[in-house]
Design a protein that fits this description.
The protein is α+β, with helices and mostly antiparallel strands. It has helices spanning 10-19, 29-42, 77-80, 102-105, 141-163, 175-192, 206-213, 215-232, 256-277, 300-329, and strands at residues 46-52, 56-63, 69-71, 87-89, 112-119, 125-133, 196-204, 238-243, 246-252, 284-291. Helices cover 46% and strands 21% of the residues. The strands form two sheets. A six-stranded antiparallel beta sheet has the order 3-2-1-6-5-4. A four-stranded antiparallel beta sheet has the order 8-9-7-10, with helices on both faces. The longest helix has 30 residues, at 300-329. 36% of the residues are buried.
Length: 331
């Protein structure tokens, strides 16, 4: 048996999958309908919507199997997500990668497998729509097209889930998506005994942009700020638009001091953007950084609350400094 490799984008792929907050959720008719259709159209005993996480393939929809997941290292779908097109095994018993696989030699005695990768909007392969038979078989070109069409329908349903966790304007995580993914990150930090820090961000003087330049320009400013976040932070950093002009970043394996340095560097990057954009206004922000302490913070909401409080203090200090400078200039 040959265990599947990991995709090159494994870290971001897992981040995308977790952000959907779909793993270990109840069955849904919109997915079950498509696996029933696949089973009927292809005349197979088993059809699955399989999502591959760190250690397993978990079945969001399952027809013909009594289990809800199997280990990733013996999964067929783990191999399927490494490519862009349908992964077909006509006879697993004759394939060196699978001949001694327990899913072949034991229940459910897989002989035929065809899995079409399910892509997210960012291109990550989250899992497959797959069909399985207990006897060898093949698919003709028309069959392959049908399986692709069905997989595309599953992708549309996953996109609907994803849209619930993405901010519609900026296309980064919204509050719901961030809370789910951030809680996973904090749990990992607890388990691995590594630090994490959160930066709570609020844009400065955002209302005047809307008032003086119009709401369309205000939207453009929010989008531009999100784009600057994407280019400034690591792929392992979680960032989101919480609401209005409030944003957040969760840095894993990062102390408060280091996170503060990164945020000051981000300010410099944003200043350079402002100079180049020259749109008649500057995008600026205040922030508060808090380091995660599991004895003090019982979850992500507590961390956000403290970060918000620290940001508010920083914003008040900035306003005091501005007033003092204005007073000094009139003396």
């Amino acid at each position: 048996m040959i265990a599947p490799d990991f995709p090159e984008d494994e870290a971001s792929r897992l981040g995308t999958l977790r952000s959907l907050d779909i793993l270990d959720t109840a069955a849904e008719e919109r997915f079950d309908r498509l696996t029933r259709m696949s089973k009927r159209l292809f005349g197979v005993p088993i059809a699955l919507v399989s999502l591959v996480d760190e250690n397993r393939q978990w079945f969001k929809s399952c027809v013909g199997l009594s289990v809800s997941e199997t280990p990733r290292d013996i999964s067929f779908c783990g191999h399927a997500i490494l490519g862009d097109d349908i992964f077909v095994i006509p006879d697993a018993a004759q394939d060196i990668r699978f001949a001694d696989n327990p899913l072949v030699t034991q229940e459910p005695h897989i002989r035929f497998y065809a899995g079409c990768p399910l892509s997210s909007q960012n291109g990550s392969k989250l899992g497959t729509l797959c069909i399985i038979d207990t006897k060898p078989r093949s698919l003709d070109p028309e069959d392959l097209d049908t399986l692709r069409d069905l997989a595309s329908m599953v992708e549309r349903e996953l996109e609907a889930v994803q849209l619930a966790t993405l901010d519609e304007l900026t296309k980064i995580s919204n509050r719901r998506g961030f809370l789910s993914l951030a809680q996973h990150t904090l749990s990992l930090c607890d388990r691995e005994d590594i630090c994490a820090s959160l930066a709570f961000i609020d844009l400065n003087n955002f209302k005047p942009i809307n008032d003086n330049f119009g709401h369309a320009e205000g939207d453009h400013a929010l989008i531009a700020f999100a784009e600057q976040m994407k280019s400034a932070f690591r792929s392992s950093d979680l960032f989101a638009r919480l609401s209005g002009d409030e944003f957040v970043v969760l840095f894993s394996n990062t102390s408060k001091h280091t996170a503060s340095v990164v945020m000051e560097r981000f300010k410099t990057q944003l200043n350079e953007y402002n100079k180049a954009a020259s749109r008649g206004y500057d995008i600026a922000f205040s922030f508060g950084v808090v380091e995660y302490d599991p004895d003090k913070h019982d979850g992500i909401e507590a961390l956000l609350a403290e970060g918000d409080s620290l940001m508010y203090e920083a914003k008040k200090a900035r306003k005091r400094n501005n007033r003092d400078q204005l007073t000094a200039s009139h003396r």
